[in-house]
Design a protein that fits this description.
- This protein is mostly helical and about 80 residues long.
- It has one domain (about 10-75).
- The chain is about 70% helix and about 0% strand.
- The chain contains four helices and no strands.
- The chain has helices at about 10-25, 30-40, 45-55, 60-75.
- It comes from Streptomyces meridianus.
- InterPro entries: FitA-like_RHH (IPR053853), Ribbon_hlx_hlx (IPR010985).
- This is Antitoxin.
Length: about 80
């Protein structure tokens, strides 16, 4: 597992994060690790758009298009 060290964190931000960790019944380290993992699991807008473009860029044959049209028409 990787290790991250954060320097020069604003005292107010530290106090707020420490309080939130305590309120959730977790250590500050556990609280921050969970928050960072949740953040990493969510794609950014650019990542989501790139994935959508990738999915849409696949080629579809004319036969497949016609088959779907026939299926939609109940033919």
């Amino acid at each position: 597992m990787a290790t991250v060290q954060i320097r020069n964190l604003d005292d107010r931000a530290y106090d707020i994060l420490r309080r939130r960790a305590a309120d959730s019944g977790r250590s500050l380290q556990e609280y921050l690790r969970t928050r960072l993992e949740e953040e990493a699991a969510r794609p950014t807008l650019d990542e989501a758009l790139a994935a959508a473009r990738s999915e849409l860029s696949g080629e579809v044959s004319m036969d497949a298009i016609v088959a779907v049209q026939h299926e939609d028409r109940g033919e």
